[in-house]
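Hey L., structure's done. Input below.
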Amino acid sequence: MHVLRVLALAAIVMAAFPLRADASDIRQGSQVIIGPNDTIDDDLYAFATTVTISGTVNGDVIAAGNNISVDGTVNGSLSAAGNTVSIRGQVNGSVRAAGTTVFVDGKIGGDLFAAGNEVTTTANARIGRDAVVAGTSVTLTGAIVRNVQAASTNLTLDGPVGGNVSARADRLTLTGRAAIDGSLSYSSAQDASIASGAVIRGSTTRSTPPTGPVQVAPGPAAIAIDWLRGLVGLLLLGLFLVLFFPAFARRSGEALVRSPFVSLGVGCLVLIGVPIVAVLLFIVGALIGGWWLGLVALAFYFAAIAVSLPVAALGVGASILRVTRRPAQLVIALILGLIVLLLVGIVPILGGVVLFIAVLFGLGATAIAVAGGRRPETAPA
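Output:
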């Protein structure tokens, strides 16, 4: 069962983050803006605080940042992770989005896979295939051609659905504009609020979620959503390093690729030695002065642990790109490495061991990169 889940997630990830062999347009910085008169004939990789696409992209789009908006046309698929993801234009492929707010007011030719605190599709939205959504508050108003799978605290269906609806919600509401051509199956502790004008052409089935501390194995959709949330958090931290500290990111990735066992050894020393040194500095400093040096050492320690997985991902991604003889772009290496590490992390026992070892590699590479920043850098091979 776990193997099937990993394979299912691998399929989702390969679709969400394709690594094409042909040319791609990679843009990064504080802002990435594709103007209304701009046309991009390649896949677009955009990583910035603000990503705005008002023109035309004749390929897939992978975007990460704080605010991501698509007001133009994407003739491929869209994969977006950010605080706010807004789609007011047209995406002819599928959309995979994760953020605090996911807002759809345009046309999507394929599937919608969305996870966030608030997920909303307006009356102008149209989903050409299935909608798989999860969030604290989910409102689906636009037309959905096929099926809906949803998990939410508050779920509102306010438009037509061409297929079946399967939902898990604390509160499910069907307004007078809701029209389900198939059946409705939902799990909730209370009956759904169904307005008199709502239409359900198939059967309606309600199941009661188990009470008490009974733990049920999560389904593939729940695992995929949790995995995507973890990826988004680590990706944003990694992008912060890559965009604002590119020299450090490059040095740490090179340290892992060139000297992996040295990085592992240094990581073990940092994991064990820094807390001991910090405590000694604090004790000695309390007697003779300079106790704050212990706090500085602890601050470095926790910061290094926080960035260890993104740093390890840079090394893994750079190694894969080197083997496949592709350009070693920091952002692409980060995305590829995180996907590999987090996919392996799903596997019971083995995943935990691999992630722990990755943390050790990342700690060592971080320490080496910080030490290397004190001397002039040599040109990368």
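The CA atoms of residues 106 and 265 lie 52 Å apart. The two ends are 43 Å apart (CA to CA).

-- N.
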